[in-house]
Automatic annotation (TrEMBL):
InterPro entries cross-referenced by the UniProt entry: Poly_Biosynth_Transport, Polysacc_synth, WzxE
UniProt keyword annotations, A-Z: Cell membrane, Membrane, Transmembrane, Transmembrane helix
Pfam family for this entry, one: Polysacc_synt
Ranges annotated as spanning the membrane: 21-45, 57-81, 102-123, 129-149, 161-181, 187-209, 230-251, 271-291, 312-331, 351-369, 381-399, 405-426
Location (main, coarse): membrane
UniProt cross-references to CDD domains, sorted A to Z: MATE_like_10
Organism: Pseudomonas fungipugnans
The protein, known as: O-antigen translocase
Recorded topology in the membrane: Multi-pass membrane protein
Origin: domain of life: Bacteria
Subcellular location: Cell membrane
Length: 431
């Protein structure tokens, strides 16, 4: 290649990379911003008690957003990254994924419709909101479609498409949530939680229609081997999606019973604040880190990437968390309301726990990328059991809601230590 042409090509690549990075950053910032505004709306219109009452439904919607279509988004990223140079295998895998997702969504929808009154009675303490459960059961088809589109685009490293879906979806979510919560309070907040995830399907459909995959008219394909491979990711997603929210539901019930709805609301607000900023790291690692390690086969190539991203996420988190902690007396009332001032003395536990958790995420993505099902399942279940055991023990010992925060910190410290030791052993054995 002529040197001048090569320089122009490198310049064009750098320009595309900068545009992609800018869009991805904008998408993450807008998603975090929308998450904080949503929490603020719930805090202002429902208060700490209302936040506590809405907690169970928030957990259920979170579970479905991760499990919609079988929770195979990380599987899509992995296999699309592997097969992007093999068009026949790639198209076959997408067809299999579409069939798998549709079957999973149909089963979930039928179960949701059939048990809607029972589910409403448990999460809302009344069967009268069964229609909200029905709405969620139908809306999860939209969740799944978005997961398919973003999974394929991330696997192809088409971060521009992913970023635009997030940006447009965030723009749509905010006014809808504001109107619903302001007009219908508790019911509006419940509905807005569903819209929070389902509205992303609108820009996802737009970009799908513009893509080559729409023009190829890829159908639905059943393939036993393909379904088996995707099932591993469903099991990983199911354990990850269900274990944490299920433990939250158990602990929240005990908080409500022993301390009250306000204490449950304080803890729920902390969870939602954490989810808002931790989402940045999860998506950052899924978009940039996971495709990189999916393409690597040798541990000698994976290990440097792991340590590089580990140091990167720790540095970013420590910087942000330090600012948040120093300004907590201003930021917590600003992001929530004056009712949540008790969180100012507890947020240090959440920030420290999230520091260990975000670092552990890097090792966790290696496990997902290599489809190490047994390790992932054991790790996720162990987290849930340790947190639940410690949380209930501290709560019943008289520590109240502070005991739950301390239990979360201890669990994340333990999981971080075990993950680092496990990765070190894996690295040495593979040399």
């Amino acid at each position: 290649m002529h040197p001048a042409i090569k320089v122009k090509a490198n310049s064009a690549d750098r320009k595309r990379a900068l545009i992609s990075a800018a869009l991805t950053t904008t998408a993450q910032v807008s998603k975090i911003g929308v998450g904080f505004v949503f929490i603020k709306l719930v805090a202002v219109y429902l208060g700490a008690g209302g936040m506590g009452q809405l907690g169970h439904f928030m957990s259920v919607v979170t579970i479905l957003s991760l499990l919609a279509g079988g929770g195979i988004v990380n599987g899509l990223i992995k296999y699309v990254a592997q097969y992007k140079g093999k068009p026949k295998k790639l198209l076959n895998m997408i067809a299999v994924s579409k069939a798998y997702s549709l079957i999973f969504c149909a089963v979930v929808c039928l179960l949701g419709c059939f048990f809607s009154r029972y589910i409403s009675g448990y999460i809302f303490k009344t069967p009268d909101y069964y229609w909200v459960v029905l709405f969620l059961a139908v809306a999860q088809f939209g969740f799944a479609f978005t997961n398919l589109v973003t999974g394929v685009s991330n696997g192809l490293r088409d971060t521009k498409t992913y970023a635009m879906i997030q940006i447009v979806g965030n723009i749509l979510v905010l006014p809808v949530s504001w109107i619903l919560i302001q007009s219908f309070n508790f019911v509006g907040a419940a509905l807005s939680m569903v819209f929070f995830f389902s509205l992303y399907s609108i820009p996802a459909m737009y970009f799908y229609r513009k893509s080559v995959f729409s023009k190829l008219k890829i159908g639905f394909r059943y393939e036993a081997e393909g379904f088996k491979r995707l099932l591993a990711f469903t099991l990983m997603a199911a354990v990850g999606a269900i274990s944490a929210p299920l433990v939250e539901i158990v602990i929240r019930e005990q908080l409500i019973e022993h301390v009250g709805f306000v204490a449950a609301g304080i803890w729920q607000a902390s969870i939602k604040l954490s989810s808002a900023y931790m989402g940045f790291f999860t998506i950052f690692l899924a978009v940039y880190f996971m495709p990189m390690i999916s393409e690597k086969e040798k541990v000698a190539e994976i290990a440097p990437l792991v340590f590089k991203f580990m140091k990167m996420v720790m540095a970013i988190f420590v910087l942000g968390a330090s600012v948040f902690f120093l300004l907590r007396h201003y930021l917590i009332p600003l992001l929530l309301s004056a009712e949540f001032t008790d969180l100012e003395g507890l947020i240090k536990y959440q920030l420290l726990a999230d520091l260990f958790r975000v670092t552990t995420y890097v090792v966790g993505f290696v496990v997902i990328a290599k489809a190490s099902l047994r390790i992932y399942l054991v790790g996720e279940l162990a987290q849930g059991l340790v947190f639940c055991g410690l949380g209930l023990a501290f709560l019943h010992s008289g520590l109240g809601v502070e005991g739950v925060f301390i239990a979360n910190l201890l669990m994340n410290m333990l999981y971080f230590t075990v993950s680092i030791i496990g990765f070190t052993i894996y690295r040495k054995r593979s040399v």
